Amino acid sequence: MVQMIETVQPAPGMTDLWLAQYRDCSTEPIGLSPEKAHFLLVVHAGHGPGCRPYLAAASFEG
């Protein structure tokens, strides 16, 4: 049996915008959506407990 994994895809062009906005780990993300939270979790994985985008995305409930 094959298990399907659902992926969250941002709208076209949003990836570049989010990379520019949240490249700094001290930047607090605002207006999180499920897509943006998933993106931030992937991009900032492994940055440690001081990474604000990762912490905000990890605690996102949407």
Strand content: under 5%
- Annotation field: number of helices: 3
Basic shape: globular
Spell the H/E element sequence.
HHH
Total strand segments: 0
End-to-end distance: 30 Å
State the major sheet. Answer: none
Low-pLDDT sequence parts: none
Structural class: mainly alpha
Radius of gyration: 12 Å
- The portion of residues assigned to helices is 40-55%
Mean pLDDT across residues: 87
Give me a quick take on this structure.
This protein is an all-alpha fold and 62 residues long. It is 40% helix and 0% strand.
Q: How would you describe this protein?
A:
The relative contact order is 0.21. The chain is mostly helical and 62 residues long. The protein has a domain at 28-61. The protein contains three helices and no strands. The model has no long low-confidence stretch (mean pLDDT 87).
Give the key terms.
62 residues, mainly alpha, 3 helices, 40% helix, 0% strand, globular
Strand and helix map with partners:
Layout: H1 14-21, H2 34-43, H3 52-58
Helix pairs in contact: 2-3
